[in-house]
C-alpha cells in the first residue's frame, strides 16, 4: 500500500472518531441539562409532620373519632380470682384500676371510652362503694353483677348510672353465662357481656350517653411521658396483699409495661396477648375493715389524697394524688405541685394500703 493511501485512511479514521466524540459529548451534555431541569421541576419532598388528630381520647391522649370524644365512658367490674382467669377484653381498656376487695383478693374496674371492637368482657362481678366513687369520677356508666349492701345503698343515693347483671331489670339481657366457665371455674365466674351488647342496650336511651356541660377530665398527655430525672423503674412490683402481687416489666421495644400477676403473664383471653400499658400509677391510701361486716369487706379512703408513684418509659418519680369529691376525677401532681403529664396510651392504676410493699428497679 502506498504512503498516500495509508495517510488517506488515517485521516478518515480520525474524522470519524472526532464526530463520534462530539455526538457523545452532546448527548451527555443534553442528559445533564435534562437531569438538572428535572430536579428543578421536581424538587425532593420533605416528609410532612404528622397531622394532629381531629380529636383525642380524654383517657389516653390518643386519636379518637370526634363523635366519641365527649361520650361518657363505660366502667366494667372484672373478677380477678385466679380461678376466674383469663379475663376477657381487658387489654382494650383505656384505664385499669386494681383495688383490694375482701379477703386479700383484688378486682379490676376497666374503663373504656369507646366500646367499638372490644369484644367479650368478663367475667363480671359485684361492685363496692369505692368502685362507685371511681366510676363517678369519670362520669361513667357502671357495668357490674351485684354489689355489697353498702354499694346497693349508695347507688341510688349517689345517682350511679349502672347496668346490673344480677339484680337488674331489662339490662340483664346484656349478659350470658359461659358454659365452659360455668363447668370449669364455677357459676360465680361465668357471667359475661360484650362491648356490642352494652352499646345496643344503651342505644335504647336509658341513660345519657354524653357528658353534661361542665364536666372536665383535664389529664395532660405527651408523646413521651418518661419523667425527667426519674429513678430506674424497669421492673416494678406492687404487693396488694399476702395473696396478690402485681408486676410491671418495661419492654423498650414496645415502649410499654407488660403486666403480670400470680407469677405469670396477665393475659387477655380474647386476644391471647399479655396486657401492656404505657403508664403505671401506684396510689397509697388508708384501707380498713368495715366494722361489723360479717364478710370482712373493707373501706378504701379515696377522698383524703396522699402519696404515690408514677412510672413511664422505665423511669419513676414520686407523686401526690387527690380526689376532692365523690364525682371528681383523680388528679396527680409531682412533689413540687406541677401537674403530672402522662404518656399517650393506656394507664394502670394500683390503689394500695399505706404499708404495702412497692419496689421499682
CATH superfamily: YerB-like
Topology as a string of helices (H) and strands (E): HEEEEHEHEEHEHEEEEEEEEEEEEEEEE
Helical coverage, percent range? 10-25%
Radius of gyration (CA) equals 32 Å
Total of DSSP H or I helical runs spanning 4+ residues: 5
Global mean pLDDT: 90
Number of domains: 1
According to CATH, the fold-level topology is YerB-like fold
**Assigned CATH class:** Alpha Beta
Strand % is 25-35%
How far the N terminus sits from the C terminus, by CA atoms, comes to 97 Å
- The coarse silhouette is globular
Number of strands: 24
Main sheet properties: 11 strands, mixed
> Which second-level CATH architecture applies?
3-Layer(bba) Sandwich
- Return the structural class: alpha+beta
Q: Unreliable runs, pLDDT <50, ≥5 residues? A: 1-37
Amino acid at each position: 500500500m502506498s504512503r498516500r493511501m495509508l495517510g488517506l485512511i488515517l485521516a478518515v479514521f480520525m474524522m470519524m472518531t472526532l464526530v463520534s466524540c462530539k455526538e457523545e459529548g452532546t448527548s451527555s451534555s443534553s442528559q445533564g441539562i435534562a437531569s438538572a431541569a428535572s430536579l428543578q421541576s421536581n424538587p425532593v419532598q420533605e416528609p410532612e409532620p404528622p397531622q394532629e388528630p381531629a380529636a383525642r381520647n380524654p383517657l389516653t391522649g390518643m386519636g379518637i373519632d370526634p363523635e366519641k370524644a365527649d361520650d361518657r365512658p363505660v366502667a366494667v367490674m372484672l373478677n380477678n380470682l385466679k380461678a376466674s382467669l383469663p379475663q376477657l377484653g381487658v387489654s382494650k381498656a383505656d384505664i385499669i384500676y386494681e383495688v383490694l376487695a375482701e379477703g386479700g383478693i383484688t378486682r379490676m374496674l376497666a374503663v373504656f371510652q369507646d366500646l367499638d371492637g372490644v369484644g367479650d368482657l368478663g367475667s363480671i362481678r359485684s361492685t363496692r362503694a369505692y368502685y362507685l366513687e371511681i366510676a363517678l369520677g369519670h362520669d361513667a356508666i357502671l357495668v357490674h353483677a351485684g354489689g355489697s349492701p353498702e354499694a346497693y345503698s349508695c347507688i341510688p343515693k349517689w345517682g350511679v348510672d349502672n347496668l346490673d347483671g344480677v339484680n337488674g331489670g331489662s339490662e340483664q339481657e346484656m349478659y350470658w353465662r359461659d358454659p365452659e366457665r360455668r363447668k370449669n371455674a364455677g357459676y360465680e365466674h361465668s357471667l359475661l357481656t360484650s362491648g356490642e351488647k352494652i352499646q345496643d342496650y344503651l342505644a335504647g336511651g336509658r341513660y345519657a350517653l354524653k357528658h353534661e356541660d361542665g364536666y372536665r377530665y383535664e389529664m395532660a398527655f405527651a408523646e413521651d411521658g418518661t419523667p425527667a430525672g426519674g429513678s430506674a423503674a424497669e421492673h416494678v412490683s406492687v404487693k396488694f396483699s399476702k395473696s396478690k402481687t402485681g408486676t410491671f416489666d418495661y419492654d423498650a421495644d414496645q415502649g410499654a409495661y407488660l403486666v403480670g400477676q400470680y407469677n405469670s403473664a396477665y393475659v387477655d383471653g380474647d386476644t391471647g396477648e399479655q396486657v401492656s400499658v404505657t403508664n403505671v400509677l401506684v396510689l397509697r391510701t388508708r384501707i380498713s375493715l368495715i366494722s361489723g361486716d360479717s364478710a370482712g369487706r373493707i373501706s378504701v379512703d379515696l377522698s383524703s389524697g396522699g402519696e404515690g408513684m408514677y412510672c413511664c418509659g422505665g423511669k419513676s418519680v414520686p407523686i401526690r394524688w387527690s380526689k376532692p369529691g365523690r364525682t371528681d376525677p383523680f388528679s396527680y401532681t409531682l412533689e413540687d405541685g406541677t401537674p403530672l403529664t402522662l404518656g399517650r396510651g393506656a394507664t394502670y392504676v394500683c390503689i394500695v394500703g399505706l404499708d404495702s410493699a412497692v419496689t421499682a428497679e
